[in-house]
Amino acid sequence: MNRALPVVQLRVPTDEDAFAWHRVFDHPDVMEFHGGRSAELSVYEELTARQRKHDAEHGFCFWTMLDEERFPGEVLGFTGAQPWPHAWGPKGEIEIGWRLGRAYWGMGYATAAAQATLERLRAAGVRSVVAMVDARNERSIAVTRRLGMELAETFTTPASKQQGHCFRLEL
């Protein structure tokens, strides 16, 4: 039996969201596939600023994820899309991604927010997306499957030397 996905709100990240992202992602489980340890606040300050720029330029970004009905005033994480930011990998493509605070795992938020992201990307005229996922990250791989994405390529990340997957979806 499929349960209904939660209703999420997505907003362009604010300056204050850098603090919220820093706090909600400060958990070893959350950071397991993102460097293995908590990032400095400055990383999130730069990331939220870059996302505001992406939204202004492209009409999409990594949005702050909320559920005002169940968790009023709480930032759950982020989801959205951005141009692939690295010199390696799918240069020139649009990457969809998500990250949730540990307290919000297993509730359908990543899937619900990623589906909302795909709707916004279609409306913005984006024709395809990729998701770059650590090969060990079974939870994120499950989200890509729920979105209908297909494995397009396997790669080794330059920094961590871990095996990863590039999933693709034509919109």
Q: What report would you give on this structure?
A:
With 171 residues, this protein is α+β, with helices and mostly antiparallel strands. It has a domain at 9-126: Aminopeptidase. 33% of the residues lie in helices and 27% in strands. It contains five helices and seven strands. It has a four-stranded antiparallel beta sheet, with helices on both faces. Strands 5-7-6 form a three-stranded antiparallel beta sheet, covered by helices on one side. Strand 6 and strand 7 (163-170) form a beta hairpin. It is globular. The model has no long low-confidence stretch (mean pLDDT 94). Keywords: Transferase.
Which helices and strands appear, and what pairs or packs with what?
Layout: E1 9-11, H1 15-24, H2 28-31, H3 41-58, E2 62-66, E3 75-83, E4 94-100, H4 109-123, E5 128-134, H5 138-146, E6 150-156, E7 163-170
Antiparallel strand pairs: 1-2, 2-3, 3-4, 5-7, 6-7
Helix pairs in contact: 1-3
By CATH, the topology of one domain is Aminopeptidase
State the secondary-structure class. alpha+beta
Helical fraction equals: 25-40%
Poorly predicted spans: none
Largest beta-sheet characterization: 4 strands, antiparallel
Label the overall shape.
globular
Query: Please, how many helices?
Result: 5
Summary of the model, kept short:
This protein has a domain at 9-126: Gcn5-related N-acetyltransferase (GNAT) (Aminopeptidase). It contains 5 helices and 7 strands. The protein has helices spanning 15-24, 28-31, 41-58, 109-123, 138-146, and strands spanning 9-11, 62-66, 75-83, 94-100, 128-134, 150-156, 163-170.
